[in-house]
Write a structure and sequence with these properties.
- There is one protein chain.
- The protein has 1171 residues and is α+β, with helices and mostly antiparallel strands.
- The strands form 5 sheets. Strands 10, 11, 14, 15, 16, 17, 18, 19 and 20 form a 9-stranded mixed β-sheet that branches. An 8-stranded mixed β-sheet has the order 8-26-25-24-9-21-23-22, with helices on both faces.
- Helix 7 (93-101) crosses helix 10, helix 20 (498-509) crosses helix 22 and helix 36 (958-977) runs parallel beside helix 38 (1026-1048).
- The chain is elongated, with a radius of gyration of 36 Å.
């Protein structure tokens, strides 16, 4: 405090006089924030003289906040740091190139190419020896022999291109993820008081000294000390691992830490540490420091072929740690987890991922076997032919020549392997997902976990909230019951006795969060804007409709004067505020769900404002005549009541004693109209085979009325509408445990679950996912916005959080955030998800046709003619360029409405359906027939020299060039066939809507012309005449005609066709895999067979790793984010059906549960301050 002239300091003196700038340094505050409870209070009182004088040392006003002067804010940032944790540096392009080079198949090709190169320059002395067999051809080919290095060089060149393409893809992917994360970060705002006004500020702009408003559902963005709090409870499990909620108060424990969740109550805090100086930031910095050592250890202990290490190393790299920045447990428990990871059975997460990995393993095995057999046959044939049949001796000078032959055979074998493995597949998956994620942004779906996108396409059930998702979340009071009169419109103030009017106005204005308010409309003639809790806004609107002003009441009783606040939570389902009366004694105002509050009332005001006794029979009468008729019209009913305490100080902590003997003032009916577009969206879901269920905290009559308006239930249907209590009674046994068999009898018909708690929602979702009744297993999507929806959102296959009404905790637990809170956006997500699935199937159909044909051609060609008709470099062109481009072309098809006209695939449906298998085999037959005809009779047909059995370094022949050209052109036309996978005839429909597809097909064709005409020796091509080109084109075009022939054959008649790429079968769903890490099928296969870690799987692994980054709860919510829980919470049900106990279980943080549910089963559907 010694230097008041804070703005006139020269820049360099800031560092010298930090103590003088503010009354404490960064280190002082860091030390302070490490203390807890009474130690912290003593420290504040001894060193700073209390919280108020700490505020004055930080030059801030506890009520008004900072002035917002830019120079002052800038100086605070310089002295105390910014509220940012610097992200880890992204990998450089060269690092990504090095990673791509680790691919085993590429390494094999490089070695083969280098040996080939070396041998081509080596001229053996016995080269002219006749005894060496066919090593060298006639003298005129001598010049060609000199060019023997070209093939090796061409293979190396192709490898370089493959590596660069892969590295570029990884680089652009990482860049996209970072962009997405930055966007989410910018969108995260927090309420801060500046200059006496509450403003929403981006989290990064918060500085030390700011006064922040905190409320239920917030995730704290910085460390701070409580200045004023109402019934505040914090979940600190993400920092401490303690699952119990910690009560915060000025007397007990005022320390609030960043990354923790507000589970109850509200208050104000002064920010004392931001960014890397906050508790979260300190942990993050430690994590960063320990990483270098971790990686060193890993490098020493890394074993080739065991993917676990790769997974671990990946999560340490740029994207992962930045997206999942603050997992304090990760650093601490990593040792234990490494040990555990080996033992635990793992849970399969993404439907598509599991299927793809299995398929890749199967294909890779087949390719490996084929390539091994090819090399073996070639070597045996050569050895037997030369040394057994022709009886040549093995001469020492001939050895290099024989080695050259063996290298050539080895290259052919590797080529077969290269072709067999669909390494374009991971690329297709990535492109398809990235493209969809980008487009879904426009459809108001912010995807946080990449794989949620495709899982959504498989969704068979959606459990939706009512408020805000199906309804407009713009509430207004439309009916009221005051003083024995049921008003079907808002009464005029003259109809009410002044005393009652006064009680209504005070009861609403004081007993609601002061952050809820009604602002004037943004546009002329628009509706007033509702800020804060929508139910409270409806009540404040009711006050305005009664021509009263709630602002006047609030300025008379500011928040500081509130004596005690019982904030809303899912247990109480009500909110109460106590104020001291001017003449002594206290008055408490309460509001909440009408059934709950009326049970606690023993008096009611009559039309003269006098309190009359209110007995049980009166209550039943009122429920029958007032509440049920309101609910049947789809209205939510709330009761407003009060109680006076005259004598002495009541026992405030004994809630049951305080919240009784209330006097009912009024019951109001609140309408929340159904969104106009919802009925249509739900009809689309039904057509698409998706069941929509409503899970709400509302009265069952209200819920049923809204469900009927939405079209969730239609008269005449066989459906169930249950209340939470009844639901629990039906699904639990005598011990109070949930029984899957009982649940299986209920969920198929259940459409509405009313008066449900968060636990009920979680139980329902878990029950549906685990159920094995019906033809296929269910894939469940869930929407939620309240803090207590966290567990259900985490458990669901896809969790949707509300972008507008959702709390930070709900967003944290979700996979997709609906930026407009609208149910129709979920339907769009389904459409995009199915499109991803179809895009990948289209690509698979195309890719596998290429692979089947190329492998068989290379294999048989090599065995019969000792040389593959398609050379290594040509294969690389076909394989890489066609695959990369094709994945781009087929993975970016825009979705159409027809996607919503079929049923979902579900979990067990194979990736390659029988129709696709028919297409793959059908086109393979056509292509193989053509190619074998050309190989064995092509020279006669075109009247050219035969290219078969050419000597080692012979020039490219027209014969084999025609084969290569025809092969590529057939793939090009088959790419058009692959646009349809469900047996549709018109393969051209909508082709011009996809410019990428058209340009890829055209570009590949031009590339092919250049290769054939100018590729020469490196591509083993020679120029073709115009008529030969026309023949090639004609044969290629035949693919389209053949496609029509294939689609005429009914799939049913081909009984022998098998499907491939299955999901998990029912038998494989083990109970112990519940809640554990992902299964990596590849890993299991590799352990069993110890097969070569081949190329495609390697790349798929890389993709999965990046996707896993998203799945591991990878908190995308910005740099000041942390996984919701460092410890896994095991929810055990105890005999009484109303409570669940939560036991912490050590487990990897990948499956963290969003919040410890330790509340009675009565709960709230949407995290609002009022039911």
């Amino acid at each position: 405090m010694t230097n008041p002239t804070e703005h006139t300091l020269p820049a360099n003196s800031i560092l010298e006089s930090r103590e003088g700038e503010f009354g404490c340094t960064v280190m002082d505050l860091r030390k302070l924030m490490e203390l807890r409870s009474s130690d912290a209070i003593d420290h504040i009182n001894i060193h700073y003289g209390g919280v108020t004088s700490l505020c004055s040392r930080l030059k801030t006003n506890p009520v008004e906040g900072l002035s917002g002067n830019p120079a002052d804010l800038e100086k605070r940032k310089q002295v105390f740091g910014q509220n940012l944790i610097p992200p880890k540096k992204p990998k450089t392009f060269l690092e990504l190139v090095w990673e791509a080079l680790q691919d085993v198949t590429l390494i094999i090709l490089e070695i083969a190419a280098i040996i080939s190169l070396v041998l081509s320059f080596y001229r053996p002395p016995g080269g002219e020896n006749e005894q060496c067999g066919l090593a060298v051809s006639s003298p005129e080919d001598e010049g060609e022999a000199e060019a023997g290095w070209i093939e090796g060089a061409a293979i190396l060149f192709s490898v370089i291109i493959v590596v660069l393409v892969t590295a570029f893809n990884d680089w652009s992917k990482e860049k996209q993820f970072r962009g997405l994360q930055n966007r989410i970060e910018k969108e995260q705002k927090f309420s801060v008081i500046r200059n006496g006004h509450i403003i929403q500020l981006p989290v990064a702009e918060i500085v030390v000294g700011d006064i922040a408003q905190i409320k239920y559902g917030d995730l704290l963005p910085a460390d701070g000390i409580l200045i004023q709090g109402n019934d505040l409870k914090i979940d600190e499990s993400s920092l401490t691992g303690e699952s119990d909620h910690v009560k915060k108060s000025l007397e007990r424990d005022p320390m609030l830490l960043s990354g923790t969740h507000v589970m109850e109550g509200s208050g104000r805090m002064v920010v004392t540490a931001v960014g890397i100086n906050s508790q979260t930031g300190i942990i993050f910095t430690l994590l960063g420091a320990s990483e270098g050592e971790e990686e060193e250890k890993k490098k020493k202990g890394k074993k080739q072929g065991v993917p676990e290490n790769r997974n671990k190393a990946k999560t340490q790299d740029g994207v992962a740690l930045e997206i999942q920045p603050l997992n304090s447990q990760e650093g601490i428990d990593s040792e234990e987890k490494e040990k555990k990871a080996a033992k635990l059975p793992r849970k399969e997460k993404s439907v598509l991922q599991g299927k793809l990995t299995r398929l890749a393993v199967q294909i890779g095995k087949a390719g490996l076997i084929m390539s091994a057999i090819t090399v073996l046959i070639l070597i045996l044939y050569f050895v037997i032919d030369n040394f057994a049949i022709q009886r040549r001796p093995w001469l020492a000078e001939c050895t290099p020549i024989y080695v050259q032959y063996f290298v050539k055979f080895f290259i052919i074998g590797v080529t077969v392997l290269v072709v067999a493995v669909p390494e374009g597949l991971p690329l297709a998956v990535t492109i398809s997902l990235a493209y969809s994620v980008k487009k879904m942004m426009k459809d108001n779906n912010l995807v946080r976990h990449l794989d949620a996108c495709e899982t959504m396409g498989n969704a068979t059930a959606i459990c939706s909230d009512k408020t805000g998702t199906l309804t407009m979340n713009r509430m207004s009071v439309v009916q009221a019951y005051i003083g024995d009169t049921h008003y079907h419109q808002i009464p005029s103030p003259d109809d009410l006795v002044p005393k009652v009017l006064d009680l209504i106005v005070n009861g609403i204005s004081i007993n609601s969060a002061y952050t809820s308010k009604i602002l004037p409309p943004e546009k002329e003639g628009g509706l007033p804007r509702q800020v804060g809790n929508k139910t409270e806004c409806a009540l404040l609107g009711f006050v305005s409709d009664l021509k009263q002003d709630y602002h006047a009441v609030r300025s008379e009783v500011p928040e500081e004067k509130l004596y005690k606040v019982y904030t809303f939570n899912s247990v109480r389902k009500s909110m109460s505020t106590v104020i001291a009366k001017p003449g002594g004694g206290y008055r408490m105002y309460s509001k909440g769900a009408s059934e709950i509050i009326l049970r606690k009332c023993n008096r009611i005001l009559d039309k003269n404002g006098e309190a009359m006794p209110f007995k049980n029979k009166d209550r039943d009468e009122m429920v029958r005549t007032v509440i049920e008729p309101m609910a049947c019209e789809g209205l939510r009913t709330l009761c407003i009541a009060y109680r006076d305490f005259s004598d002495g100080e009541p026992p405030w902590d004994n809630e049951s004693e305080i919240l009784t003997e209330l006097t009912c003032i009024a019951v109001v009916g609140i309408e929340d109209p159904v969104r106009p577009e919802v009925p249509d969206a739900i009809a689309k879901c039904k057509r698409a085979g998706i069941t929509v269920r409503m899970v709400t905290g509302d009265n069952i009559n209200t819920a049923r009325a809204i469900a009927t308006k939405c079209g969730i239930v239609t008269p005449g249907d066989d459906f169930l509408c249950l209340e939470g209590k009844e639901f629990n009674r039906l699904i639990r046994n005598e011990k109070g445990e949930v029984e899957q068999e009982k649940l299986d009898e209920i969920w198929p018909k259940l459409r509405v679950l009313a008066r449900s708690s968060p636990t009920d929602k979680h139980t329902l979702v878990k029950g549906i996912i685990d159920s094995t009744v019906g033809d296929q297993r269910q894939v469940v999507a869930v929407t939620g916005d309240g803090t207590n929806d966290g567990p259900a959102l985490k458990k669901a296959d896809v969790g949707f959080a509300m972008g507008i009404a959702g709390t930070d905790v709900a967003k944290e637990a979700s996979d997709i955030i609906l930026t407009d809170d609208n149910f129709t956006s979920i339907v769009k997500a389904v459409m995009w998800g199915r499109n991803v699935y179809d895009s990948i199937s289209k690509f698979l159909q195309f890719q596998l046709t290429v692979n089947v044909v190329a492998v068989i051609v290379a294999f048989t060609g090599a065995c019969i003619t000792q040389d593959s008709p398609l050379k290594a470099v040509q294969m690389l062109w076909v394989n890489l360029i066609m695959d990369t481009f094709a994945s781009l072309a087929l993975a970016t098809e825009p979705p159409t409405d027809s996607l919503l006209k079929r049923r979902p695939y579900g979990r067990n449906k194979p990736l390659i359906s029988r129709t696709m298998m028919k297409n793959i085999l059908g086109h393979a037959v056509y292509q193989l027939t053509v190619i074998f005809f050309l190989v064995f009779a092509g020279e006669k047909f075109f009247d050219i020299d035969s290219g078969r059995r050419a000597p080692l370094h012979s020039p490219p022949s027209q014969h084999y060039t025609i084969i290569f050209n025809t092969f590529v052109l057939m793939q090009l036309f088959n790419e058009i066939n692959s646009r349809k996978i469900h047996g549709e005839r018109n393969v051209f429909s909508g082709i011009f809507h996809n410019l990428i597809f058209c340009s890829v097909v055209l570009g590949t064709f031009i590339g092919q012309i250049i290769i054939v005409e100018f590729g020469g020796k490196p591509f083993s091509c020679t120029k073709l005449t115009l008529s030969q080109w026309f023949w090639c084109l004609f044969i290629g075009f035949g693919e389209l005609l053949w496609g029509q022939v294939i689609s005429t054959i009914p799939t049913q008649s081909l009984k022998f066709l098998k499907e491939a790429g299955h999901g998990t079968t029912k038998e494989e769903i083990t109970k112990d895999a519940e809640g554990l890490d992902e299964i990596d099928h590849a890993e299991m296969e590799l352990r069993r067979g110890q097969i070569l870690w081949f190329r495609g799987l390697n790349r798929i692994q890389t993709q999965i790793d990046v996707i896993n980054t998203f799945q591991t709860g990878a908190s995308f919510k910005g740099v000041l984010r942390r996984q919701t829980m460092g410890q896994h919470l095991d929810v055990k049900h105890v005999p009484s059906s109303s409570y669940v106990t939560v036991a912490p279980v050590k487990s990897p943080p990948t499956t963290s549960v969003a919040a410890a549910v330790s509340s009675p089963t009565l709960g709230n559907q949407s995290g609002q301050s009022v039911p």
